[in-house]
Write a structure and sequence with these properties.
Elements lengths: L3 H8 L1 H4 L4 E7 L5 H12 L1 H9 L2 H21 L1 H6 E6 L5 E5 L9 E7 L2 E7 L3 E7 L5 H7 L2 H9 L7 H16 L10 E7 L2 E6 L8 E9 L2 E8 L5 E7 L5 E5 L2
Helix pairs in contact: 3-4, 3-5, 7-9
Bound molecules: coenzyme A.
Length: about 260
C-alpha cells in the first residue's frame, strides 16, 4: 500500500497537466491459455489473471493484450502514476476509470481500451481519451457508406489512405470518439462527423446529444495489419504511440496532432 500523499499527488495531476497522450498497441503472444494466464499473473498481477480466466476463450488474447498495453502505457506515463494505479473500475456507462491503490478514482488521467483478435490498444491522457483498433480489412465499402457521407470519405482519402483501408479508418476514427465521450453506441456513428484534417488524422464533430464535448482530434495509424485510432479533446496536442509487438521492447513513433 502506498502512503496517502501518493494518492493526493495523483489526484492533483490535472493542475500541472504533467502527462501527455500516450497510446500503446500490444499483440498477445500466440500461447496456450494456461501459459497466457501464468504470464498475466507474473507480469500483470492476480486481478488481471483472474479476470482473464473468466472471459470467453475467443476474447482472451485481445483482452490480455489490452491489459499489457495499459500496463506499458502507465509506465511510459511515469513511475509515479504506474506505481499508484491499482487497476480499473467502470463508470455507469461502461467507461473504464483508473483507480488508485487507496481505492479512489484517479481524476485528471483519462484511459481508454480496445481489443480485437490478438491486438489490444490502451490510451492514457490528461483528459477524456478514446481508443479503437480493428483489422485493417475488416469492413467493406458498403459498411463505410452506411456510417459516413461522401465529404467524410474525401477527407479520409485525402490523407493518403487507400480505398481498401478507408472503411476501417472511418470506423475506428468514429468509434474512438464514441468511446472518448463515454456514450459508446448510444450515439449513432453517423452523428460523429469527420469535418477536417489535422496532422496525423482528422477533426471530428459530435452532432446533437446533450452534455457531450463536440470537437475531438483523432490520430489514425496503421500498424501490424491493424488500424488504430486515438481520440482526445481538440487541441490537446500530439499522441505518442508505442508498439509492443510480442517482443519485450518498444518502437516509438510520434503521431503529430
Ligand atoms: C463502447 C463500445 C462501442 C465498445 O465496443 P466493443 O465492441 O466492446 O469494442 P472494443 O474492443 O473497441 O472496446 C471494448 C472496451 O471499451 C470500453 N468501454 C465499454 N463501454 C464504454 C463506454 N461507454 N465508453 C468508453 N469505453 C467503453 C471497455 O474498456 C472495453 O474493454 P474492457 O471491457 O476489456 O475493459 C460498446 O461497448 C458500447 O457502445 N457500450 C456502451 C453502450 C452499451 O452498453 N450498449 C449496448 C449495445 S448498444
Amino acid at each position: 500500500m502506498q502512503p496517502a500523499h501518493a494518492d493526493a499527488v495523483l489526484r492533483s495531476a490535472p493542475r500541472g497537466c504533467r502527462i501527455r497522450v500516450r497510446a500503446v498497441l500490444a499483440l498477445s503472444p500466440r500461447l496456450p491459455d494456461q501459459q497466457l494466464l501464468r504470464i498475466a499473473r507474473e507480469r500483470l498481477g492476480e486481478v488481471v489473471a483472474h479476470e482473464l480466466g473468466r472471459i470467453p476463450d475467443r476474447r482472451r488474447q485481445g483482452h490480455f493484450a489490452s491489459r499489457l498495453a495499459l500496463d506499458r502505457a502507465l509506465h511510459l506515463t511515469g513511475s509515479e502514476i504506474a506505481e499508484n494505479v491499482a487497476y480499473l473500475r467502470y463508470s455507469g456507462d461502461g467507461r473504464p476509470v483508473l483507480v488508485s491503490r487507496a481505492g479512489r478514482e484517479v481524476h485528471g488521467v483519462g484511459c481508454s481500451l480496445a481489443h480485437t483478435g490478438r491486438a489490444g490498444l490502451a490510451v492514457i491522457g490528461p483528459s477524456d481519451v478514446g481508443a479503437d483498433v480493428e483489422p485493417q480489412h475488416r469492413f467493406g465499402l458498403e459498411f463505410a457508406f452506411r456510417i459516413s457521407e461522401p465529404d467524410e470519405f474525401d477527407l479520409v482519402s485525402e490523407a493518403g489512405i487507400s480505398p481498401d483501408l478507408l472503411p476501417a479508418a472511418i470506423w475506428t476514427a468514429k468509434e474512438s470518439v464514441l468511446k472518448a465521450t463515454g456514450r459508446g453506441m448510444r450515439i449513432d456513428p453517423r452523428h460523429i462527423r469527420i469535418v477536417g484534417r489535422i496532422a496525423g488524422g482528422w477533426r471530428l464533430y459530435v452532432e446533437g446529444g446533450r452534455n457531450v464535448p463536440r470537437n475531438w482530434d483523432v490520430a489514425s495509424y496503421g500498424a501490424a495489419g491493424y488500424r488504430l485510432a486515438i481520440a482526445r479533446s481538440a487541441g490537446s496536442g500530439p499522441v505518442a504511440l508505442y508498439l509492443h509487438l510480442s517482443q519485450p521492447r518498444y518502437r516509438g513513433a510520434e503521431v503529430p496532432g
